[in-house]
Amino acid sequence: MIENSKAEILPKFVEQEFENLIGTIQDNLKILKFVLNSVPIGIFIYQPNIVYANNYTLQHFKIDAKELFSYTPEMLLDKSTPQHVRKDLISKDTGIKNYELRLNVKGVILDVIAVSQTIVYKGKPAGIIWFIDNTKFKEIKEEFSELLHYLPIVAYKVRIFKDKSFQVTVSKAIKKLTGFTSKEAESNLFWWQEHIYEADRDRMLKAQKALVANKYMQHQYRIVCKDGSYIWIDDRLVNLNHGDMILDILGFWNEITVLKLHEFANQAIAEINQHFITQSDEERILFCICKHFVESEFCEQVVLTRKSGKKYRYPENDIKDFVMQKHLKVAYAEEVLKIVFYFQAKITKPEVFEGILNMFKNNVETGLKALRDARKLNYLTYHEFLCDYPNDNALRKKLKKYKEPFALLIINIRSFSNINLLYGFSFGNKVLCAVADIMKESLAVTDSVYHLAGDKFCLFIKDVNQLKKIAKKIANQCAHSIFVKQRHIPVSCRFGIAKYPQDSENSLEVRDLAMTALSYASKHKQEIAVYEPKMKETLSTYIETETVLIDAIENNAFVLHYQPVTDVKTEKILHCEALIRLKDKNNKQIVPEYMIHVAEELGLIKKITKIVITNVAKQQQIWQKKGLHVTVAVNISSYDVESEEFLDFFEETMTKYGLNNKSIAIEITERTAVQNYAAAEKFLQVMKQLGISVEIDDFGIAHSSLSQITQMEFDTLKIDKSFIDKIIQSDKEREIVKIIIEMAKVLNVTTLAEGVESKEQLEWLKKNGCDMIQGYYISKPLSAQDFEAYFSLRG
C-alpha cells in the first residue's frame, strides 16, 4: 500500500460540481443501493479520491467507508504493481481496461481481476473500478502449478500470436526427464521440433499441421535428451485458440519408455515365436532373434555369440552411440548363447529389464528346445535308430520330389530270424548294420541306402545300367565279408528291381513295383528279379482285395473256421483257433496273410478284429448253450494292442454275450510284442487282470530281444510253422525248436507247435517236450458245424 502518492492525479471538481455529483449519486442511491450491495462484485468510484464503495468492497478491504474515502486507487496498489498499470488508472482515456492486480489495504492482500473505465461528468473525468476477489483461485492455481513442477509429467503451454510473437511455458519436470531446464525449452519456439527423434520427426510435423483444425490430439514419439539418449513420451494436447492467436496449446507429456519397450519386446517375441513354428533353419532363427528385436524398436542393436565364437548381429555395422547395454545368457542344447542388447533409450530404472529379458529368455529357450526336439523328431521320422540310416519315410519323401531317371533295389536278408535265434538279437542287429554298410560302400556317392524295416533295405540308384552288377557285388560281399565278434556270418540276399520312368511314371509306385519284384523273386526262389509288366497282376489283386475287404466289413461277409489245438500226448482237443476266411469276386479264397496285410495297410484291421471277436462271442454263446465248452483263440493286430478302445470293446462284448474268461484267448505276434513293447506290456497286464489267456504267435521270426520276452506276462508260446517244416530234415531247425521249448519251460509257459503236418513231426515234438500241436495232421480249419462234430469225437 502506498500512503502518499506523488503520481499525477486527475483534475479536481470545483466544490459545487462535487456537491452536484454527490447529490446525483445520493438521489439515485436508493434505487441502486439494493443492486450494488447485493452483487458479488466490488465497485468503487474515485475522483481522484474514492468517493463511493459498495458493501463487497468494504467487506473485502476490511475498512470503513470514511477511511476508504481518504484513499486514491493508486494507494491501494501493491508495490509489485507495474508502473504502466498505475498510469492507466489515472488516465483520461475513457476505454475499458482489464487487469490482474494485487491490492494491499492496510496489510490485507487481495489478488483481484479488475475492470476500469473513466467516465466524464460535465467535462471532467471520474474513474469506476469493478473487481472480483481472485485470491483463493490464484492460491489454488499456484499450488497446482507447483504440483505440476514436481509430478513426473511435463505440462506445457504454447501461445503463438498473430504478430508472430510467442509465449512458451514448460513445467520443471522436463529437467528430470530430459536433462533440459524449463528455460532452455522455453527459449526457442522450435525447441520441440529440434529435439524430436529423427526417425519420428516427419510423422510428428505432419501431425502438428493438423492441430490447427483439430481441437485435441494424442500421439507417441521419442524426444532426444540432453545426453543424446531418448525417451518415449505420450503427448496429449488441446488447442484453446480464441481467434486472436494462431495457436494456443495446452498439453502434457507422460514418459512411457518402459511401456513401449514392453510392447516392442512382446512384438519381437511374437515374431520370433512364429519363426520357431515355420522355420527349421537354426542359422536363420538365430539371426532373426537379433533382427526382430531391432526392427520392433526395442533396442538399436543385438549381438548374439555362440560357444564357437560365431556372431550374429543386427544391424551388421556396430553402433557406437549407445547409453546402455544389457547382457543375457540363453541355454541352447549343450551350449550357452550370449546376447547383448544395445540401447539409446534412456531407462531411469534398468531393473525393469529383468522382467522383459526373463520373459524373452524363457520364450527363446522354450522355442530353441522345441526346435531341437522338432529336428530330432524330424530326424527320427526319416531315420531308423538301429543303424542310423534313412528309413522308408525318407525314401517316400525323396521319391515324391525326384523326377530324373532312377532305379530301386529292394533287398531282403533271407532267413534272418535264424541269426537272431542262434546268436541273439543284439548280435543280429550288428549283422544288419554290417549289411547296410556293405550296401553303402557298394554305391556311388550320388546313390543312397534306406532301411525300410527289419531285414529289408532299399537302394536308390541313378545309373540304371549298373543294377545287376551292384546287386551281385552286394550279394558277394554279404556272403563273404561280414564278421561280428570275430565270427563270420554268411548272409544271403534277394533283390527286387524296378525303374523310373520305364516301369512307372509315378515315382512312388516304383517302390511298390520293386517290392512286387522282390516278392516274385522270393516265390520263385530267385536271387534277383527285375520288374516286368506281368508282375502288375499283384497290384491288381491288391486293389481287388481292397474292394472285397470293404464290402465284407460293410456286410459282415467274413467266414470263421476253427482249427483244433490238441494235447501232444493225448491228442485231445484243448482249445481252437478262429481263422478268418474271405472269398474274392471269383469265389476263390483270399490268402489270409495277404488279406491281413492289405487290411493293415488300408487301416481296416481294427474293424475286422471287432467283427471276428463279435462273431466268435456269438458262436461261443451258441456252443455253451449246447454244452460245448472250449476256449477259442483270436488273433489281434498291433493296432488293437495299442488301442484302449479295444480293451473297452472286448470287455463289453464278453459281458454282452455272457462269456467267462475261459471263453476267448488272445493271440498276438512276437513282432507286435517287441515292436510295440510298452503298449504290449500294458495290454498283457490288463489281460492278466481279466484272466484272459494270451498266446505269442509266430515266435522266432521277429527281431525280438530275449530280455523283453522274458519280462512279458503270457501263457503260451507258439512256434512258427517255418521251423516245424524243417525239424525232420534240418539239425539247425531242430536245435532252434529245442531252444524255444526249453526257454518256454524256464518262463513257465506252454508251447504250441503250428503247422504240424506229419506223424514224424508229432513224434519229435512229443519226444522233445512240446505241450500242444496244431496243423493239418490233426485237422484242417473247420466250419462251426464241422467243429462241433469233430469236438464230439475228440473233445
Please describe what this structure looks like.
The protein has 795 residues and is of the alpha+beta class. The protein has 30 helices and 29 strands. An 8-stranded mixed β-barrel has the order 22-23-24-25-26-27-28-29, surrounded by 4 helices. The chain is elongated, with a radius of gyration of 52 Å. The protein starts with 14 loop residues before the first helix and ends with a helix. Mean pLDDT is 85; it is low at 1-9.
Key descriptive features of the protein:
single chain; 795 residues; alpha+beta; 8-stranded mixed beta barrel; 5-stranded antiparallel β-sheet; 30 helices; 29 strands; 24% strand; elongated; disordered N terminus
Helix content: 40-55%
Characterize the largest beta sheet: strand count, sense, and whether it forms a barrel: 8 strands, mixed, barrel
Radius of gyration: 52 Å
- Average predicted confidence as pLDDT: 85
Which range does the strand content fall in?
15-25%
Total number of helices: 30
- Poorly predicted segments: 1-9
What is the global morphology? elongated
Straight-line N-to-C gap: 137 Å
Largest beta sheet: strand ordering: 22-23-24-25-26-27-28-29
Category by helix and strand content: alpha+beta
The count of DSSP E runs of length 2 or more, i.e. the number of strands, is 29
